[in-house]
Design brief:
The structure is a single chain. This protein is of the alpha/beta class. The protein has 15 helices and 22 strands.
Amino acid sequence: MEWWKDAIIYQIYPRSFQDSNGDGIGDIPGIISRLDHLQELGVGAVWLSPVYKSPNADNGYDISDYREINPEYGTMEDMERLIAEAGKRNIRIIMDLVINHTSTDHYWFRQSRDKTSGYADYYYWRHGGPDGALPNNWTGFFGEDCWEFDPERCEYYLHLFARTQADLNYHNPAVLEEVRDILRFWLRKGVAGFRCDVINILWKDSLESGRKRLALTGSEHYLSLEGTHRILRQLREVLDEYGAFAVGETVFVSPEQARALCREDELDMVFSFEHMECDQYFLKWFKRKFRPEAFFNCLTKWQKELAWNALYLENHDQPRSIPRFGSEAHWKESGKLLATLLLTLRGTPFIYQGQEIGMMNFDFDRMRQLNDVESKNVEKVLRRFHIPRKLRWKIISRTSRDNARTPFQWSGGEGAGFTDGRPWLGINRNCQEINLASQEEDPDSIWSWYKDLSRLRRENGVLRRGSFVPLEAGEQVFAYRRELGEEKWTVALNFSDKPARVSCRGGVVRSNLGRETFDGNLGPWEAVILR
């Protein structure tokens, strides 16, 4: 049963969702206490960012034990209770599967330092070259070289991400068997499937030096190779034992590569990044002016070329969507417009925590307020190139992953309803204006709009399973039609502070400006759904 084609999936970043014990860190009991919020939103599944045991060099994406819960988040009993309580509300739990790398605190890695142990080649170990040269010229995703010398083994290990995230060696069949057992462990506990972290880079075909690039030198040796497909097919065998779901985060993929990853014996769907790159140059840290037309054309391409899309505008790695694709001056209207886009395209929508109330980027003003390891590494690189401090901060503040990681703004009170203690990351001062409590009873709020569109989608098959027909993609207007049998619905969106005119006609199903009839004229940041 392809339940995920009819569901809306909600991503929780556990550290920032709800603290239950006053230590300033979100936790599993806190999530349980907010399940009714997710049920009211109409969520069918929750993707939980990692809650495994971890030293938190990358906030849980550096796992030291896949079968244990990070004590900061609670216990395994809490996790089992979350699965059960969510199930009572018809909400499935999707775990974050991080299997490209583990923490260097993991038992496997500690044992691999001994060349005589059974774990000696669970990771990529290599000697350096003469005169202290690294094993190759590869560069990593966090803006640094990706080899670290280990004085105990007297060799270098590969890490495409932070230096405490050592890449697993899938040339050793034992590694894949370990991962298959981890899947079974969680599936037996009742999880519905997995979101698979950077899943298209698992297989490294060689460790030869790569072609020099501005970033990710060496990536031709690991991006979307046949070896990864072989791994995914063996993981799918386990998933199929339980009828489980898998969505893969995939970096630098084309629609053709995405289709190859979405075969019935591999992944159910993938997160692609192309639409998130429309406001940047080659590197994510160098932004350019957002061009709606390029954004529309990219969305249209992926709607047409993939049988099914994973739809998202925000996640734990991306800045917030309203200041990025919408308008801070038209916060409410553009927030509703982006919700309309997300919930009316063809595919499975993923809502990131706080998106449903229009949360914004952080309001920090200095580096020491950040926690994100990627941001800190990039700042070091920029400093090495003598980029002035003010420009460094401008680059980091616009792109930092911490923009989406500030605590959920449940209320305008002390701690924003997130915690009674000192929060692990600063709370945005706008929580006094932007919070759930202030929107719950307001029928015109972003929260009410998300709930309404969620219900509209659940009740109308044309929005869930209908085909996508592009109508217009101009400098400010995006219009498309969803068709299922005789049912035809049209969506028209004005991504601009200026009015616009479209040729679409029909009876108004919804308008974020509250109109009941439509004459072809769109107001600034207006979204209309027509039947």
